[in-house]
Amino acid sequence: MKLALDVSAVPPQVAGAGRYIVELARRLPERGVATTLVTRRDDVERWATWSPRAQRAPLVPNARIARLVSEAYLLGKSVTARQSDLWHAPHYTMPRRRANPCVVTIHDLTFFTNPEWHERSKVAFFRRAINYSTQHARVLICVSAFSARLLEEIVPVHVPIVVAPLGVELDTFQTDSSGDDALFESHALPRTVPYIFFVGTVEPRKGLDVLLGAFSEVAKEIDDVELWLAGQAGWSTGPIETQIATHPYATRIRRLGFVDDALLPALYRQARAVAYPSRGEGFGLPVLEAMACGAMVVTTAGTVMAEVAGGAAALVPVGDAGALAQSLRDALGSTDDERAARAMRARVRAEIFTWDACLDQHLVAYEQALS
Predict the structure, then answer these.
(1) How many domains does the chain have?
(2) Is 278 found in the same domain as 154?
(3) 265 and 146, same structural domain?
(4) Which of 86, 218, 263, 309 has its CA 20 to 30 A from that of 174?
(5) What is the C-alpha separation between 371 and 363, in angstroms, rounded?
(6) Cα-Cα-Cα-Cα dihedral of 141, 142, 145, 146, to 10°?
(7) Degrees (nearest 5) of the Cα angle 264, 142, 37?
């Protein structure tokens, strides 16, 4: 099988959907798929490092508008496309003009269910893109059963859907904490401070406003606890920045910015609680990564994160700062035995979600698209 994989939408700092695309690019050649990565013109080197066994085709313009036009009307008829059996578009959109069958990944349906979580221009664009893909792709991939159900409820689907839950690198995100002290020291982080940890892009849907409200209640009662926030800035960050700056316990909020996989597992492991109060996701990868590290996770009920957690995380209603504060208090006050039991349940649950299993489902989707 010869596959063209469009990796041109992956930003410089990889997270979420970008992590998924990187893992596909790394692993597909190892599974015997002759893979060509369709990259931006200035973005060949990192893909050569990440996926040395794949071919690279730097066809995509760097500017966003030019990139979208190129995808719609040029890439699908390019020499790379014509020399491939199949085109995989892993981020909602697909070529309008194409020489071969196309598989499209749909991550979530929040552009339809909660447009207020996104910039207006993106809502209009991705609604059109998803509607087009559901009618013209040969097969659709959803990264969770939760998203697949929503897709069939919201958008008329005319093609098969394959569910391919995301995975976690279990050798990287694991429970062995023997090197954590050295990592914290090298990053000038205090090792003995109890902290609540959040990682995610700063944007409206992540529930950071709720977490900051909950932290006000917790910090009022527990003198030394801190809130550590990791992740890159998204959009509409102004209200959150104001809330942090004016927070009654602002001096106990630590901003870490983007952190890579060298430090991230240690941050999960050493946290007294990992809070991920997102209002909605396609999968919620931080919940899975934290569970793989044996963390005590608190996330939101009625979401895909609850589906992923499978009883191994504490669940609170979406937007309920009081309930979140109580769950965080419970985690902070847990005994060593309680933490060990929770860590074991979380790790066992996380081990279900592997990138190999995710790749298996992608190969099923590819075969369906070609048959």
Answers:
(1) 2
(2) no
(3) no
(4) 218
(5) 12
(6) -160
(7) 70
Q: Are 95 and 357 in contact (CB under 8 A)?
A: no
| Enclosing domain of residue 255 | 180-350
Instruction: Write the pLDDT tens digit of every residue in 320-366.
Output: 999 999 999 999 999 999 999 999 999 999 999 999 999 999 999 99
Q: Is residue 174 part of a domain?
A: no
Alpha-carbon dihedral angle through residues 294, 300, 304, 307, given to the nearest 10 degrees = 60
319 — alpha (psi -120 to 50), left (phi > 0) or beta?
left
CA-wise closest residue to 290 among 310, 278, 273 = 273
- pLDDT number for residue 346: 98
Pair 185, 287 in one domain: yes
348 three-state secondary structure:
helix
Query: Does 326 share its domain with 201?
Result: yes
CB–CB of 181/187 below 8 Å? Answer: no
| Cα–Cα distance, 27 to 40 (Å, whole number) | 20
Measure CA 347 to chain center: 19
For residues 163 and 186, membership in a common domain is answered with no
Q: Residue 95 is encoded by which pair of tokens?
A: 């070529």
CA–CA separation, 158 vs 15, rounded Å? 30
Q: Domain check: are 141 and 20 in the same one? A: yes
Asked whether residue 172 is assigned to any structural domain, the reply reads no
My answer on whether 232 and 153 are in the same domain is: no
Q: Which helix (H) or strand (E) holds 34?
A: strand 34-40
Cα–Cα distance measured from residue 223 to residue 236, given in angstroms and rounded to the nearest whole number: 31
Instruction: Write down how long the chain is.
Output: 371
Which DSSP state fits 122?
A: H
Q: Which pLDDT belongs to residue 258?
A: 94
Output the domain CATH number for residue 319. Answer: 3.40.50.2000
